[in-house]
Amino acid sequence: MSILDRVDSPSELKRLTLAQLERLAVEIRGEIVETTSRTGGHVAPNLGVVELTLALHYVYQSPRDKLFWDVGHQCYSHKILTGRKSLFYTLRQFKGISGFPKKSESEHDVFDSGHSGDSISAALGHAVGARLAGREGRSIAIIGDGSVVTGMAFEALNHAGELKQKLVVVLNDNEMSIARSTGAMSAYLNRIITGGMYNRMRADVWNLLGMLPRDMSGRARVAARKIEEGMKNLVVPSLLFEELGFRYVGPVDGHNIPELVHTFRRIEPFPGPVLVHVVTRKGKGFQPALERPEDFHGVGPFDGLTGARPPAEGDTYMSSFGRKMVELASGDDRVVAITAGMCLGTGLSEFREKFPNRFFDVGICEQHAVTFGAGLALAGMRPVVAIYSTFLQRAIDQIIEDVCLQGLPVVFAVDRAGLVGEDGPTHHGTFDLSYLSMIPRLVVAAPGDEPELCEMLELALGHQAGPVAIRYPRGGSAPAVSRRREPVALGKAEVVREGPDGCVFALGAVLPACIAAAQTLASTGLELTVVNARFAKPLDRGLVLRLAERHRRVVTVEEGVLSGGFGAAVSSLVGERLPGVEVRNLGLPDAFVEHAPRRKLMELVSLTPEALLNRFQDLFGTDG
Are 377 and 408 a contacting pair, CB within 8 Å? Predict the structure, then answer.
């Protein structure tokens, strides 16, 4: 029997020796690689924290002690150790376990997470609340070096230092967020390293070693060179975090279980907040992920031996966006690209290689990315801020105050709009149509396919009057329906087929499904007009009113929440000007949609061609 077969809870884990824990780490890595090779998932982050997770559960008493996983995409070992080993094969599958912490799954998952920077705030709040309620137990936040640079994390560190609340923050330092970490933190630390105190210490040690006998001096200085990096790690971070009021411990080898266990036991009596600096390697134990951690941050299925992945099937919105950005930047040196730790995920890798001076990865700092883009626009540049829909919502205030209020020509490339699939409700981009459409001066566009995305991007960069947001989904569109295309013009919709029996306004990626449903219905004698709306804001008011008056029955379809979305805008316009016309809105339910493959989710929300065919039949049929 393997050690993993004997462990299904933290209490069972505590019966093992440290040597058995080390063997268990190997078995858990094998389980993670084997499962994610079939289901996809966050491979490299999880492989990097296996020993850390074992040590935390070995020392602390979950669920009495609360583990707050920042982002949460590194929780696979935690799930295996807390009663979900037998369900791990269902990872990220429909009705299976989530790839992120989820309170509804287990008492050991104390906080639903999926975005960066919230763990310290939540852990601090829980620690204070538990103290006020007289309950025992530690609060432990586990946060990566990419997430700790977020503004919210620094706010929480500052507050924790002020409160002197007993709290453990584990800084998982793997020099990666999603791509390699960037930002001012390392520059700040380097300034300290080049300052007087550190260099006086270095010189004094070097001179002291030179006083040793000749045969010892040379060997000692060689050793000193090898430990110089360790000296930096020992001196520099402690200055920063202890100034914030934390007791700093580390750096600790994040793959050395005895050292981790000893460290967590040793800090138990410390009063006040403690920061444990743990150094890990993302992708450890699986060579392809170790060599290419950015590629294996979040992946689909892959070969469990070689790491090879199936070839991409045709164009995607992301790849089309990336190619068009390179084309436009080649012809205009004002075009710059900004992303928030997601170069590969937004399709900007080629842009980064060809225009390194015009590419800016600001790290997981979406608010800064937006206002940085505003500053670039002020200087006459044409910034394109490429951020996933779910993460862009972290910067709503900056979009309103720093871009739209000032009418600055910033372009927002809002990737992963709509339902993204297996990552679930923390990553679905279901709210952007609502939160963007409410903002004055902001144009909100949604292409019906990849070529239209490229046209919209070119139009947006030529639009000097203010900001433009273009929202598009993950993956590619359905097979293109043969049709005559009208060039994209600002605020103008496109009629793609005409029929006398009703009118469908489709916004964005639902367009192919609406056309397919309408074509099938035509064979039954029900002929519908289908409009590619293209813009949620400004609406093509003239066309909407003309077609609504002609058909007297209108349906809108969008892959977003209905409250405040595209359909709501059409309903408001038609209701005000043509009160006798019936308008029905189809979109996403007023709920957080679960995780499953995207195709399955589209079935669940009735936005597939087959489901739309039935809904159109009900709405436009003779008895509708």
Answer: yes
